């Protein structure tokens, strides 16, 4: 099984990505690290514990609190899209204590403990990852592969015309990460999750019909985003974070990928957080593999099978 850490701003699809890390037999999830992003930081921490509980794994995987704000800028929320991120789910959080060790220190330590073995699924702003590579010059080299959900491949942004949320929130961190020497795989918002792997009404009905606790959890945490997506003309839910986790564990779901030079705009007036994905013609050396096409039907079947499983929430 594959040792990994999920670095997350836990709301909606982040929860689904965590379910994958917690339940896929190929995954050996060593830690969850929290980064400022989608919703209030403490809310995100609660959402992570709610997800551990939904997976029947409460107390089994450490949760580390990372950076509470971007490297140099104030926090930007996506609460207008995600609400509280879990559709109002609640539980008794007594005993749900995060670790004392900071998320950035945990990332550095876990990568150094097994150089070349640990993969990271980064599905929030890249603040923790950038901070870890600033802290330890060996960090990027110690990490096996860094799967990054962020940017759009010369396509649409979702928070501005130019930018995808994760890169927009902390563009300095994203820029630093692409310059740090990681082995990076990028899962861009557009086209992968906006045009390819959208779960439309019939797919969502199939999941609801499973009627397992996990399927009910999925439907609940995705409800606010579904409403938002419909209001902007997307016919279904988008799954950037769970797709990222699934592609790490199941590379056979990748249909096409290519080497790119990726850089991130930090100074633009209209383009803060824009991902410049240069596909080779501009003479820049590649620093990432960008996924261009996925097996969307295969991804859906995979997730449906995962949600059909029976687990016992604690
Ligand atoms: C990304 O931003 C967040 O809203 C989602 O959790 C995802 O990681 C998509 O742009
Ligand atoms: Ca996310």
Summarize the structure.
Residues 4-300 form the Inosine/uridine-preferring nucleoside hydrolase domain. This protein is of the alpha/beta class and 314 residues long. The protein has helices at residues 13-23, 41-54, 79-82, 103-113, 127-135, 139-142, 165-169, 171-178, 189-196, 201-210, 213-231, 240-249, 296-308, and strands at residues 2-8, 27-34, 63-65, 118-122, 143-149, 184-187, 254-264, 275-278, 288-294.
List keywords for this structure.
314 residues, alpha/beta, 9-stranded mixed sheet, 13 helices, globular, binds calcium ion
* Tally of separate helices: 13
Query: What is the distance, rounded to the nearest whole angstrom, between the alpha carbons of the first and last residues?
Result: 24 Å
Q: How confident is the prediction overall: mean pLDDT?
A: 96
Largest sheet, spatial ordering of strands: 3-2-1-4-5-6-9-7-8
* Run of helices and strands: EHEHEHHEHHEHHEHHHHEEEH
**What molecules are bound to this protein?**
beta-D-ribofuranose, calcium ion
What is the structural class?
alpha/beta
How many E strands?
9
Strand content: 15-25%
């Amino acid at each position: 099984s594959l040792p990994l850490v999920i670095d997350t701003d836990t709301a909606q699809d982040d929860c689904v990505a965590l379910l994958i890390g917690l339940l896929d037999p190929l995954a050996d999830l060593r830690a969850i690290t929290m980064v400022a992003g989608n919703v209030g930081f403490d809310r995100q921490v609660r959402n992570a514990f709610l997800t551990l509980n939904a997976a029947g794994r409460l107390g089994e995987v450490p949760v580390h609190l990372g950076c509470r704000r971007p490297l140099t800028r104030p926090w930007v929320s996506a609460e207008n899209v995600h609400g509280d991120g879990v559709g109002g789910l609640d539980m008794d959080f007594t005993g749900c204590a995060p670790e004392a060790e900071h998320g950035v220190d945990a990332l550095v330590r876990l990568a150094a403990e097994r150089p070349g073995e640990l993969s990271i699924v980064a599905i929030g702003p890249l603040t923790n990852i950038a901070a870890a590579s600033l802290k330890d010059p060996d960090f990027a080299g110690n990490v096996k592969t860094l799967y990054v959900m962020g940017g759009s491949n010369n396509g649409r942004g979702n928070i501005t015309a130019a930018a995808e949320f994760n890169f927009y929130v902390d563009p300095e961190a994203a820029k630093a990460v692409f310059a740090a020497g990681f082995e990076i795989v990028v899962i861009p918002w557009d086209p992968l999750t906006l045009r390819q792997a959208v779960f439309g009404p019939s797919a969502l009905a199939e999941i609801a019909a499973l009627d397992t606790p996990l399927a009910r959890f999925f439907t609940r945490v995705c409800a606010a985003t579904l409403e938002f997506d419909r209001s902007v003309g997307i016919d279904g839910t988008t799954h950037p974070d769970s797709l990222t986790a699934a592609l790490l564990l199941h590379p056979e779901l990748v249909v096409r990928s290519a080497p790119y030079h990726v850089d991130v705009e930090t100074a633009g007036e209209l383009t803060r957080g824009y991902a410049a994905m240069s596909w080779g013609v501009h003479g820049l050396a590649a620093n990432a593999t960008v996924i261009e096409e996925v097996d969307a039907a295969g991804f859906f079947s995979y997730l449906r099978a995962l949600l059909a499983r029976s687990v016992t929430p604690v």
